[in-house]
Structure formats: C-alpha cells, structure tokens
C-alpha cells in the first residue's frame, strides 16, 4: 500500500493526523514540499557542505501564520526551525538534519523607527546591510557583524559581534523586547518586565525557546566619523608570535571603546611564514586615530601594506562590511567550509608557548593545506569593552569574560563541493595547537553563532555556566522539544 493511501485510510478512520500539507494550506501558509517545484531552491544552504531535505519549507507572512505553522509542525511530530538569513554554518536554518519543518521568515521585512523612544522595530527577515541603511536614514544604528547578508533573526539569537561592539555591545545586547512564537503556538512579548526568564533566554539561545517574529532594538546615534584601517605584514613564526603577544598586551593598556577590530591570519608566501593583518575600525576623529594605534605599531616592524580610510558612518560601513549594503542589488555568494571557534578568557591569557604552537601550525600545515583558510582573532575584550561590562547573568550569552574569539575557518579550494576530508583535520589541528599548550583546566569557550557540529563537550563550551538554567527553561517551555536541532538546549 502506498504511504499516502495508508495515511488517508487512517484519517478516514479518524485515527491519524491530517497531513502537514493540509494543515498549512488550511492556515493559508505557502510552502514547498519534497519533489515539488521550488523545493530545491528553498532548500539551498549557505554552506554547501550540507544538503538536508526538510519536510517542507514554509513562507509565513505574519506572526499569526508562524504560530499556525508551528502548531501544524508540532501536531505532525516534526521539529520546527526558523530561517531568517540562512547563514548558519551547519545549516541549522534548514533544521540541521533531514525532515524538519522550516519556517523561512524572509517575508517578515518591516523596519520602523520610533523617534520618541529612539527604538527600532525590526522583523527578523531583514539582512544586516539593509538594516544599517534604513536606520542611517534616521541618523541611528545598532551594533552587528560585517556580513551584510546575515539575517538579523539568527544574528540576534546567539550574539552578533562587530567592530563597534566594544563601544555598543553585541547585537543581542541592544534587544529591548521581542515578539516570539512559543513551541505551543502562543504569540508573546518578552522584555525586562514581560516574561523576563524568556527575555533572558532569547538573548543567547533564542532558537531553543521561541521563533522571533519582531525585535525592538535600542538604537544609538551614528558616530560622527569613522576610520577603517588595515596594516599588513608577512612574518616568520617568531615574528607572528611576537605580533600576537604584543597585541594581547596592547589591548589591555587603556585602549578606548571607540577602537575595535581583529588580527587576521592567512597563508604565507612560503612554508614557515604567515600573513598577519591588524584590521579594525576607530569610531572617532582621524586626528586622534594615529595616537590610538601607535603603541601597538611601535612594537612591530613597519607594515608592508596599509590602507586607512576615513569618512562618515555610512562611508565607514561601505569599506568595512562584506557584501553589498543594499542586499537586493547583488546575489549572496555561497561557500563550502568547516569552521570552529575558541573564546579565550581575559583571566587566562594565551601563553607564549600556545601562541608559538599555533603560529608554527599555521605557518607549516597552513602553507601545505589544500584549503582556502583564514583565522580571525576578534577582539571582544580589552580595556573599556561594552561586551564585558554586561553582568554575566543579565543575558543567556555565556562569555562576558572573553578577550579574543578565534574564528578558525577553511573552505574547499574553489569554495564549491566536495569538501576535502583533510579540511576537518586541518581546522581541528588549528584548535588543538592552542588548547594542547594551555593549562589542562583552561576555561575557554566557543561561539554559538559559529557552530561546529563535530565539537565535543559542546554544552559547556557554548552555553557555559548558564547550561542548567537553560535546560530548566527548556523543560518548562518546550517539553516536546519542538524547537530541537543540533546544539540546541536540551531538557
Ligand atoms: C559570511 C558570514 C559572516 C559572518 N560574520 C559575522 C560577524 O561578523 N559577527 C558575528 O557575530 N557573526 C557573524 N556571522 C555568523 C552569523 O552571526 C550567524 O551565522 C547567524 O546566526 C546567521 O543568522 P541568519 O539569520 O542569517 O541565519 P539562519 O541560518 O537563518 O539562522 C541561524 C540560526 O538561528 C535560528 N534562527 C533564525 N531566525 C530565527 C528567529 N527569527 N528566531 C529564532 N531563531 C532563529 C535558525 O534556526 C538557526 O539555528 C557570519 C556568518 C557568515 C556566513
Ligand atoms: C598617521 O600616521 C601615518 C603613518 O603611519 C602617516 O602617514 C599619517 O600622515 C598620519 N596621519 C595623521 C593624521 O597624523
Ligand atoms: C535597494 O535596491 C533595490 C533594488 O535596486 C531598490 O528597489 C531599493 O530601493 C534599495 N533600497 C535602499 C534602502 O536603497
Ligand atoms: C584540492 O581540493 C580540490 C577541491 O577542493 C580537489 O579537486 C583537488 O584534487 C585537491 N588537491 C589535492 C592535492 O588534494
Ligand atoms: C504555551 O506555553 C506557555 C509557556 O510554557 C504557557 O505559559 C502557556 O500557558 C501555553 N499555552 C497553551 C495554550 O497551552
């Protein structure tokens, strides 16, 4: 007997559930199903290493439709996930495995600014570049990352670091309130005085508890000037170790909140060498920029390349952000890659031995690797960081003591599938070259917005000391684990 006929008989007998398709149709929700037209395009992942087959990809147009679709998924025993910009590294926007109901929120695109409260209501289907443009119309801005195509739904859910975060915090730190759909379909608002437990949980682990259908952000006046800079060197292992060690010292020596950025490490021109770049932004006047970075530059040889551009806020973003600011004007490039992160605590600096081990690995294995790779040593902490000023228990984000977030990333050599098996061992080796040289009980973490589904001990590394409070919240809000996906909070 055909499966469909069997289900129909069950339904006639009053024993089975309606098919998902019937439930979504009854709610007026457009969706694509396996085998149907539009399904393959709707199942495309940013990281082409993954090719999951969802049960359906639905395109709700309102929070009411999101709610109806969540109920339809739950009653049909499906996992339900949201997709905003689709940039999750392990395709969790597609459920992170086969058979989930995907709610694509790209139709939820409203952005409104309230000049009385200086807050912006932003729906999750908006991309970061478009948000920056829309808020700039009002002379306002929020902190966020560099890729214009990233969706704000997934960005705010787990963090949202950018080069202005030392001044304004992470993207989730400016979430004042949110409208979310709970796993039982209830549409509710969370804020400091409405559902405060959920308000806590969605700022660091939103996807495990709710589907965000609107975010209310506190906004800032745009900085009056910007300086975007890159200083580049080619170093041997000693030189790179020194460049890193000096940077780690420099960032604790009273740098202003207006300075943000990272060290970027890339393949060197020959074995035993690496490219190192100090890439960052200074949200102050050009006249005080040189003096701000001078103490670091004084510890290093003259850079072999440098670009410094100054301008207003939007001119700064145009140089800084990766991708078209207006994301409707150009397509979003895809990739085929594996990535990990290591968040290093301020209390336990990277030792010289660990730094040397890391740069030895990158200069040798990195030169030999048949991947296209980079490392970004993102500056979260250092003097005057707004990220680390937020009390540890104020949000579910578990890493308020981070100095650096190391992003370790390797694409296939042409950015297309297949991904070489050697890419996994290469990136794992980057991480262990640091960790194996640090004390055994080193209290490092990992960043949930750069998720790695091969990571051991991920509960502790991603969610840290908040894990037990998160699991208790999960038990009370989502006992059926409707919002379940790789690395989600579990009961
Ligand atoms: C090229 C590139 C550059 C990046 N740069 C940075 C950076 O500079 N700084 C930084 O911090 N991060 C950066 N990231 C990581 C980025 O923050 C995450 O990938 C982010 O989660 C993507 O959000 P999304 O909505 O595009 O992805 P999606 O795949 O749609 O969603 C990501 C996760 O969030 C869930 N989710 C999506 N929407 C919602 C919602 N409305 N409610 C609840 N859960 C939801 C999804 O189910 C999924 O688990 C970058 C990623 C890429 C690919
Ligand atoms: C800043 O320093 C650079 C050299 O690093 C120099 O070329 C430039 O003129 C200086 N700019 C200002 C405004 O002092
Ligand atoms: C973005 O580009 C699209 C297509 O060219 C255009 O219709 C839209 O007005 C632009 N948006 C902004 C904010 O400039
Ligand atoms: C390098 O990777 C590409 C594709 O990612 C593959 O076609 C090629 O065979 C690989 N080369 C080696 C030497 O492994
Ligand atoms: C839905 O879940 C929330 C949170 O657990 C609960 O407060 C609410 O009563 C539930 N609603 C229904 C209709 O079951």
Distance between the termini: 38 Å
Task: Give the overall shape.
Answer: globular
Structural class: alpha+beta
Query: Which ligands accompany this protein?
Result: flavin-adenine dinucleotide, 2-acetamido-2-deoxy-beta-D-glucopyranose
The major sheet is characterized as: 7 strands, antiparallel
Question: So, CATH architecture of the largest domain?
Answer: 3-Layer(aba) Sandwich
CATH class wording of the largest domain:
Alpha Beta
Runs with pLDDT <50, length 5+?
13-17
CA-based gyration radius: 23 Å
- For the biggest β-sheet, the strand order reads 15-12-14-13-17-18-16
**What fraction, in percent, of the residue positions are helical?**
25-40%
CATH topology heading of the largest domain: Vanillyl-alcohol Oxidase, Chain A, domain 3
Number of helical elements: 16
How many beta-strand runs?
18
Average predicted confidence as pLDDT: 96
- Assembly level: single chain
Strand content: 15-25%
User: What number of domains?
Assistant: 3
Keywords: FAD, Flavoprotein, Oxidoreductase, Signal
GO molecular function: FAD binding; oxidoreductase activity
Pfam family, one: FAD_binding_4
Family: Belongs to the oxygen-dependent FAD-linked oxidoreductase family.
């Amino acid at each position: 007997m055909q499966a469909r006929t069997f289900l129909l008989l069950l339904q006639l007998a009053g024993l089975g559930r309606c098919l998902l398709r019937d439930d979504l149709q009854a709610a007026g929700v457009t969706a694509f199903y396996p085998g149907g037209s539009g399904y393959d395009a709707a199942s495309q992942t940013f990281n082409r290493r993954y090719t999951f087959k969802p049960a359906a990809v639905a395109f709700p147009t309102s929070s009411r439709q999101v709610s109806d679709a969540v109920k339809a998924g739950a009653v049909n025993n499906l996992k339900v996930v949201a997709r905003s910009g689709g940039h999750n590294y392990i395709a969790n926007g597609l459920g992170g495995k086969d058979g989930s109901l995907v709610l694509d929120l790209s139709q939820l695109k409203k952005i409104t600014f309230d000049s009385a409260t200086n807050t912006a209501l932003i729906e999750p289907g908006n991309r970061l570049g478009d948000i920056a443009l829309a808020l700039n119309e009002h002379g306002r801005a929020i902190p966020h990352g560099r890729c214009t195509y990233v969706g704000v739904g997934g960005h705010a859910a787990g963090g949202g670091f950018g080069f202005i975060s030392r001044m304004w915090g992470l993207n989730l730190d400016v979430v004042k309130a949110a409208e979310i759909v709970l796993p039982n379909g209830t549409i509710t608002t969370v804020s400091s005085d409405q559902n405060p437990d959920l308000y806590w949980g969605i700022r660091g682990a939103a996807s495990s508890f709710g589907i965000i259908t609107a975010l209310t952000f506190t906004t800032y006046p745009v900085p009056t000037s910007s300086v975007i800079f890159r200083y580049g060197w080619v170093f041997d292992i000693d030189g790179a170790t020194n460049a890193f060690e000096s940077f780690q010292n420099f960032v604790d020596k009273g740098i202003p909140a207006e300075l943000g950025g990272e060290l970027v490490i890339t393949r060197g021109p020959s074995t035993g060498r690496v490219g190192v770049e100090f890439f960052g932004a200074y949200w102050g006047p050009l006249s005080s920029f040189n003096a701000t970075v001078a103490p670091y530059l004084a510890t290093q040889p003259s850079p072999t390349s440098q670009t410094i551009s100054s301008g207003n806020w939007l001119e700064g973003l145009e140089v800084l952000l990766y991708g078209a600011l207006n994301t409707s004007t150009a397509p979003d490039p895809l990739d085929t890659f594996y990535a990990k992160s290591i968040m290093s605590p301020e209390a336990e600096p990277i030792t010289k031995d660990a730094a040397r081990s890391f740069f030895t690995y990158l200069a040798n294995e990195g030169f030999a690797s048949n991947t296209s790779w980079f490392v970004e040593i993102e500056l979260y902490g250092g003097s005057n960081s707004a990220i680390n000023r937020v009390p540890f228990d104020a949000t579910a984000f578990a890493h308020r003591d981070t100095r650096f977030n190391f992003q370790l990333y390797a694409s296939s050599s042409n950015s297309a599938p297949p991904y070489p098996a050697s890419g996994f061992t290469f990136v794992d080796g980057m991480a262990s070259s640091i960790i194996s040289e640090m004390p055994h009980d080193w209290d490092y973490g990992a960043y949930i917005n750069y998720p790695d589904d091969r990571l051991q001990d991920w509960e502790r590394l991603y969610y840290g000391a908040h894990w037990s409070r998160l699991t208790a919240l999960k038990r009370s809000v989502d006992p059926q684990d409707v919002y379940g996906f790789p690395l989600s909070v579990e009961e």
